[in-house]
């Protein structure tokens, strides 16, 4: 993997290609914006962020962009972790992994060790574009704490689950689509958050 100035330049160009701000990157990694600036200026990135660096920018650059070779890529992407791919109807139900077998469900690999009840979903529709498009597979962890700005899977009453960004403003809570053609939804007691989106994989074929 690249280090120093070369890694900093690679991160800067990946941010530009993805069309996001440093603040957006910082929010996705759970760090402060100055830390992203430091990445670019010094090329020093904590090892705990390397896996996510590859995953977060996977829709615009390959691992080689950061100087990661095929052996390193296999180490990162094929670590044996996997979660079941659920339907949007089943996403709101309590998952009993002991009842699942290789023969009756599709398993999706993850970059990090998932929580006991984590699962995957395949994005449908355009309400979360441009960050998430139809066919993307997202990893959802019901045990992850819900914070302002995170992406969540949520259902209203017993309806099918939906995918939105969680926004907290004082005592008010909203569900925000990233595509501004869709309305922001004010949450009530009828809404239940099924889990927080922690990873995304882009499927090309």
How do the strands and helices of this protein lay out in sequence?
Blueprint: H1 4-18, H2 22-29, H3 33-42, H4 50-56, H5 70-77, E1 82-84, E2 107-109, E3 119-122, E4 137-141, E5 151-156, E6 162-169, E7 172-176, E8 185-186, E9 191-201
Antiparallel strand pairs: 1-2, 3-4, 4-9, 5-6, 5-9, 6-7, 7-8
Helix pairs in contact: 1-3, 2-3
Keywords for this entry:
205 residues; alpha+beta; two-stranded antiparallel sheet; 23% helix; globular
Tally the helices: what do you get?
5
How much of the residues is beta strand, in percent?
15-25%
The biggest beta sheet, please? 7 strands, antiparallel
Q: Strand-and-helix sequence, N→C?
A: HHHHHEEEEEEEEE
State the secondary-structure class. Answer: alpha+beta
